[in-house]
Amino acid sequence: MRHLIAGSVVAGLISYGLTQWLPTFFFRVHDLSQSQTGMLMAGVFGIPGSIGALAFGKWFDRLSHRGFQHGI
Question: Which residues contact 36 (CB under 8 A, 6 or more apart)?
Fold first, then answer.
């Protein structure tokens, strides 16, 4: 369990750091405006994230109704 928690912490730190640094990178290196960067970030992170949350939420609800209790 310690390894799982440590891995989750490291993955969270990396992902939060990346999402904070990425817009500045697009401003400086690719010469994008704020609105272009916002649309790009929404397309890369927002849309797939919301689809994944909805899809996996429904999937895990279906598994729980079937009585899937692996590891408990």
Answer: 26
